[in-house]
Amino acid sequence: MEFSVDHLTIKDSDVNKVKGQVLYVPIYSNIPCRDNRRLFDLSAFLAIHNTDVKNSIRVTRVLYFDNDGKLVKEFTTQERILGPLGATTFFIPKSDQSGTGANFLIERISDVAVTEPLVESVMVNCETNYGLSFLSKGKVIREMK
User: What is the mean pLDDT of residues 119-130?
Assistant: First the structure.
C-alpha cells in the first residue's frame, strides 16, 4: 500500500528540526533489589526511530559505556541509513554487567534539517514470576542546526 505524506491533514510546521545530534541514553543492565543485597539482571535494547516523514537520517556512531564511563562496545562499523519512518535496534544481553549507570551515546546526522528522532532504551527481564520492563528516553547533549 502506497502512502504519501501529502495526504495528511496537518502540514509541516515550525516543529524543531535539526541536521545532527548526539544523544545520551541511560541503560540499566542491572538494578538493586531486595534491600540492595542483590542485583537484578536485565537485558536491554536501544531503539532509534526516524520520525521524519520525508527524509533519511544517518546513524554514524553508537557507543556503549559502563557504569564508570569506560567504552564497552562500539556498535557501528559503518553508518546506518534510516529511511523516512525507519528504525533500528541494538541489543544488550542479560549477561552484561555494565551496571546501573551504563549508557549509550548516539550520533546521527542528515543532509537537511529533519524532525528529531525518537531514541529510547527498553530494559526487560521476564524470567520466572518476576516480569519487569521499563524504558528510558534519550537526551540531546549536542546539536547541529
Answer: 85
Burial of 128 (0-12, 13-18, 19+ CB in 10 A): exposed
Would you say residue 13 has pLDDT above 80?
no
Alpha-carbon distance of 67 to 65, in angstroms, equals 7
pLDDT at 123 over 80: yes
- Please enumerate in sequence order all residues whose Cβ is within 8 A of that of 126, keeping only pairs 6 or more positions apart, or say none: 132, 133
Is the pLDDT at 58 greater than 90? The verdict is yes
Burial of 98 (0-12, 13-18, 19+ CB in 10 A): buried
What CATH code would you report for 17-140? Answer: 2.60.290.11
